[in-house]
Structure formats: structure tokens, C-alpha cells
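User: My collaborator sent over this chain with a note saying "see what the structure looks like." That's all I know about it. Can you take a look?
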Amino acid sequence: MPVVLPPELHIQIAHWVRESSLLLPSYYRPSNAVKDISNLSRVNKTYNHISTPILYELVYVTPVNIHAFAETVRDSPERAAMVESLAVVDFPFLDLHDEECIRMVYSLITVIEALGPSLKRLLLDIPFRSIYLTPLGIKLANALRELRVIEEVANIRDEMQLSGYYGMNIFEKWATIKRLAIYNLAMDGNLIGDLQTLPNLEKLCILNPDFAWASQILMDKLFKDAPPAFKQLLLLDFENYPEDLDELDEDGMDIMDDQYTPFIRDRVAREVARKYPESFKMVNVKEVDAASREMHVTTWFRQKVVSGAVWELDKLALDEKELAVDPPIPQAMDIMQQVWANLAQM
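Assistant: Without extra context I'll predict from the sequence alone. Here is the result:
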């Protein structure tokens, strides 16, 4: 006579397989772990019923599987509702003259729209710049705005232009968002308005933020008007200062693009960090993480987001003693004034 296991034991077996394959808060499962869970789902109807939600709760999408996954979640709302965590990675430059690239963007839009009611965690590592201000870019922005229960978003590569680049506030409906890790977000008045619409935001992590339009007044307003749950703004500085300040273009544009922003970021950011030591943290990445010196900035950022380590980097922030000493860039403010003078004459 066959032994019949109680239902709770079947569930426990499936979750043992799950826990052995998932190191939270990772966005990825090892390929062998996915295979284990897939095999378990084929044992019988009982294990299929138990294992399918486990298989779909964490999904890793690339150009290889984007179309098939888009069809699945479009045609099966039940499976779409199982997805809690999504990583979209390894996409090439999106040439909108190429039919396959257009298909990939449409499939991504389909996925985001289908997962809107259920998705809690999203990692995006795709070349947004290639679709800025295009109809497809705007459709993707609209889809992202409808992530109604999203709690964590990490954008690894290229600015998402969340602060109105598409003429809309993508943050607007993200009332449940708790953690944002963003590449090169502009520290401007738009950001302040965005943050005010996010009542549950606890932590904002920005890699190489754009301080070109920042000021002490704006930063004061950011912290004074921050949402009630807000705990910390973490600035990750992955750029080096130029060694020779004399090697500048006559029109001053090189310093605007490559040198001006780091100067202002360091000056303004240090003042803010001294004023709000608990709420604002600065990390000089290349000084505290030796491995980062041999890596591309976005590769390093992706690794930290995937492992969950990005949310703990505040422990490596500049301390009070380091913040008390401004970097040796005495010409910074004179250079800034010359840049603006040059721009005014153009």
C-alpha cells in the first residue's frame, strides 16, 4: 500500500528546494536551482501546483526569453500574478530601425503591463538612452507608472529620466515604494517633487548623481520636505577627479561634462552630509572597494544590487573626520563661474 504524505509535508519539501536555491534578496537563481524546481513541478499534479508559484515568484528576463515570457504573462493572468521579483538584463543597444529590437521593447512593455498589479521588486539593466523621447520610450514609461505594489526598483544602466524627462512623473503612483537604487539621477527640483509623492520611501541610493543643478538650498528643501518614512539618501561616487585642471577646452564644455559635476557634487554633497549626518551618506566607492577599480561602474553596481549589498553600503560612508576636510580643488568655483560665462556667450 503506497504511503500518502500529508499536504503540508509536500509543501515543506518544495520550500526546502526553494530556500536552498534562493539567497535573499538576490534577483537571480542559479540555473541548477531553476532546474531543480522545474523538475519538482513535473513529479505530479500536487507538486506542480505547489512548485509553479515558486518557479514564477522570481524571474530573470533576457533577450533570449523575453518574447516567450511576454506571451506567457499576457495569456495567463494567474501566472503573471505569481511574479513578485523581475530582473531585466543583458539587453543590447536598442536600434529602433531594427525589427527585432522593436519587438524586444514591445515584449518588455507587455511584461511590465501584465505584472503591474503584483510586481514588488524590479531590476532594470537596459540601455534606456537608445529610446529616449520616442513613442516606444513613452509607452514603456507609461507601463512603469502602473506598478501599483512595487517596493524596490533598481536601475543599473542609463538614466531612466524619472524626473520628468518624458513630461510625466513615473514615480507618481509608486505609493508603496520603499527602496530606490538609481543611476545618475539629477539632484534638482523635480526630484524633490518626486519624493513628496512617495510616502513609504525609506532609502534612495544614487550612483554618480548629477549635481550640475544642485545647491545647498535645494538639498535643504529635499530633507525638510522628505516623506515621513524617509530615512536615508545614499550617494555612491564612482568617479575620479581630473589630475590636470589646465587641460580644458577653450569653450569650457569638457569641464561641464566630465569635471564640473564631480567638483560641485563633492562640495555641495559634503556640506549636506555635515548638516544631515544621519540622513545623508557619501561613499567613495573606489577607496573603500578595491575590486571596483578593475570593474566598469555599471557592472559593479549590478553586482551590489543583485546581492542586496547596495542597501548596506552606508556602513562604508565617509566619516565625520573625512567630511570635515574638503578635497584639494581650490579652483573649482572659479572654473564653475567661467563655464557659466562661456555658456552665456553661446
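A starting point for your reply to your collaborator: The mean pLDDT is 76.
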